């Protein structure tokens, strides 16, 4: 299995913090957001490679970061060749770029959004995935706040845990249960990405839009995450995440 971390965003909502540094390399506690993610992946024997997708502006920063690390799992940095935020490819095209070298292989994929922090064990997330390796899965979390849910991908599941509704950033969310930007995709999802982008010409910007489309094509199941979770999308969210780390450290 390959792990893919989508970190090609320019973090414009975090300006001025991210004018000269990618948001994945912002610090939470004594580690970067990216190190929090990669350290989880590095403990999983099933992961035999990590691919980080960067934009061209911050590509050298990720190379420098990789040189400073000592993880056991091989790490590749892929640039999408985009320097300007106004010309960004979108997260779905970035994902397609990362999957391109594995065309025709039986690889499965664990996808992480690079502005995410969570305590939940990825090993527990992968348990049902490995038992049902031809089915897609998404990590879910109850934020217990409709205002927060309105900024996320809100999901609905049936009694078997299958996702039957997925709405990206709804004005009036039906629940507070959201997708946390952690996905497991079997090999055939590469064909679904092609269908979504090249045949149906759908929005390449947000993974949530792809998921809303995918659940109408194939079964996708949810795995509930517990513990602390932070989506580091704004300065306010980042400051809140840092305060959480400070409080935990003091305790």
Write the layout of secondary structure elements.
Elements (H helix, E strand, L loop, with lengths): L1 E5 L20 E2 L2 E2 H10 L6 E6 L4 H9 L7 E5 L11 H9 L9 E5 L2 E3 L3 H10 L4 E7 L3 H4 L3 E5 L5 E6 L8 E9 L3 H11 L7 H8 L5 E5 L4 E3 L3 H16 L1
Helix pairs in contact: 3-6
Number of domains: 1
CATH class: Alpha Beta
The count of β-strands is: 13
Largest beta-sheet details: 7 strands, mixed
The rough form would be described as globular
Radius of gyration: 17 Å
Give the SSE order as H and E letters: EEEHEHEHEEHEHEEEHHEEH
Chain-averaged pLDDT: 91
Q: Which residue ranges are poorly predicted, with pLDDT under 50 across at least 5 consecutive positions? A: none
**N-to-C span:** 37 Å
CATH topology label: Spore Coat Polysaccharide Biosynthesis Protein SpsA, Chain A
CATH architecture: Alpha-Beta Complex
The CATH superfamily is identified as Spore Coat Polysaccharide Biosynthesis Protein SpsA, Chain A
Question: What is the count of helical runs?
Answer: 8
Give the strand order, joined by hyphens, for the main sheet.
5-4-1-6-11-8-12
**Percentage beta strand:** 25-35%
**What is the helical fraction, as a range of percent?**
25-40%
- Overall structural class, as computed from helix and strand content, comes to alpha/beta
């Amino acid at each position: 299995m390959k792990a893919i971390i989508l970190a090609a965003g320019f973090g414009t909502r975090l300006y001025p913090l991210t004018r000269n540094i990618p948001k994945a390399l912002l610090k939470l506690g004594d580690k970067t957001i990216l190190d929090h993610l990669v350290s989880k992946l590095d403990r999983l024997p099933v992961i035999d490679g990590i691919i980080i997708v960067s934009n061209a502006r911050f590509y050298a920063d990720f190379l420098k970061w990789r040189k400073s690390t000592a993880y056991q799992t091989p790490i590749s940095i892929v640039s999408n060749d985009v320097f300007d935020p106004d010309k960004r490819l979108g997260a779905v095209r970035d994902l397609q770029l990362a999957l391109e070298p594995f065309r025709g292989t039986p690889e499965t994929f664990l996808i992480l959004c690079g502005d995410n922090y969570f305590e939940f064990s990825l090993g527990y997330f992968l348990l049902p995935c490995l038992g049902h390796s031809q089915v897609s899965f998404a990590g879910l979390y109850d934020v217990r706040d409709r205002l927060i849910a309105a900024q996320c991908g809100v999901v609905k599941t049936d009694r078997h845990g299958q996702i039957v509704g997925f709405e990206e950033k709804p004005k009036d969310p039906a629940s507070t249960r959201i997708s946390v930007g952690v996905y497991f995709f079997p090999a055939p999802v590469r064909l679904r990405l092609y269908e979504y982008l090249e045949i149906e010409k759908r929005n390449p910007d947000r993974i949530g839009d792809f998921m809303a489309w995918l659940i109408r094509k194939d079964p996708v199941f949810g795995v509930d995450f517990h513990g602390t979770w932070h989506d580091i999308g704004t300065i306010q969210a980042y400051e809140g995440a840092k305060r959480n780390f400070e409080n935990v450290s003091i305790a």
